[in-house]
Design brief:
CATH topology: TIM Barrel
Number of strands: 8
Largest sheet: 8 strands, parallel
Distance between the termini: 48 Å
Number of helices: 12
CATH superfamily: Aldolase class I
Shape: globular
Helix content: 40-55%
CATH architecture: Alpha-Beta Barrel
Order of helices and strands: EHEHEHEHEHEHEHEHHHHH
Structural class: alpha/beta
Radius of gyration: 19 Å
């Protein structure tokens, strides 16, 4: 078993593309270096929602991990996403990630679970992955309404019967259920960390007691997220509120409907900050309209990124 236990602030980076829709490796390397230089983060995630993994081939996912390992792998652990509808393919990706230098795996729920699931199905999926690698697993907990979220009894069985599950990425979307995760999983005989991804209400989520956060918006505001987590851990509520006031305009902007555009908006934010050259997304996503681009610019200004926006505009 790897010595790494997923915890703390884990930004999920974006994946820049060229106008030909191929991976822009130079821009990706620059983006990785910028995020990895953030004081207070504990790891970085690749091959997840934020890198548009659903549109990436197996070979592209391997290349993304190779670039991340080459660029930042000696400095910080890398979490690799496992996005697959079938357990055999999930195990193949897990083996690739282990061989490619990942320190942990973020396991997305299989798409067929939208039609229904049983505890045995969930356990079988995770056992196939666990059998392919000894890396720590992070179970991505979706809202139950999607059909892909794991009910409480199923999740407890997963944590008890698959010993390589060391954390969940919690997107349950229900405050009481989220608190149950924190109070229950983090106090098991073998604790399972709750990494919140409730980035639209991050302060409230962290105050309940999460042991970390894993968020795509960390690709833009990793510094604010790390400072907020540190303030909550120190019980400095005044500082946490101040930081949350800076985060809120961007959270409101990024997580507006339709939420499928959240990482599209984050890419545009990085363009306006001068951190990547273009906000290209792969179809079926499409370019944002001018009104939304203007809203992102205003949110950046309200969040205190005035100088970076001004410098990028001047350039």
């Amino acid at each position: 078993m790897s010595a790494y236990v997923p915890h703390g602030v884990i930004p999920a980076v974006l994946l820049p593309f060229g106008t030909d829709l191929a991976i822009d490796e130079a821009s990706f390397r620059k983006h990785l270096r910028h995020v990895a230089a953030t004081p207070g983060i504990s790891a970085i995630t690749v091959n997840a929602h934020s890198t548009e993994v659903a549109s990436c081939t197996f070979d592209e996912q391997r290349r993304v991990l190779d670039i991340a390992r080459d660029e930042i792998g000696k400095r910080i652990p890398i979490v690799n996403g496992i996005w697959a509808d079938g357990s055999l393919e999930a195990a193949r990706i897990a083996r690739m990630a282990m061989q490619g230098g990942a320190s942990a795996l973020l396991v997305f729920p299989p798409g067929p679970f939208t039609l229904g699931q049983s505890p045995e199905m969930a356990l079988t999926h995770f056992r196939h992955i666990a059998g392919a690698t000894d890396l720590p697993l992070i179970a991505f907990q979706y809202p139950l309404s999607t059909g892909q979220g794991y009910p409480k009894d199923t999740l407890l069985r997963m944590c008890e019967e698959v010993p390589s599950i060391w954390a969940i990425k919690d997107w349950i979307g229900d405050v009481a259920h989220h608190e149950w995760h924190i109070r229950t999983l983090q106090h098991l005989p073998r604790p399972v960390n709750v990494l919140t991804t409730h980035s639209a209400w991050l302060l409230a989520s962290l105050v309940i007691g999460c042991n970390g956060l894993l968020s795509g918006s960390g690709s833009v505001i990793s510094n604010l997220q790390a400072q907020l987590f540190r303030a909550v851990q120190a019980d400095d509520l005044a500082e946490a509120r101040r930081l949350n006031d800076r985060i809120e305009p961007l959270a409101r902007c990024f997580y507006a409907e339709p939420r499928v555009n959240m990482h599209n908006r984050m890419k545009e934010a990085l363009v306006q900050l001068g951190r990547i050259p273009r906000a290209v997304v792969r179809p079926p996503l499409v370019r944002l309209d001018r009104a939304e681009v203007a809203r992102i610019r205003q949110a950046l200004i309200e969040s205190g990124f005035v100088d970076e926006v001004a410098n990028s505009s001047a350039a």
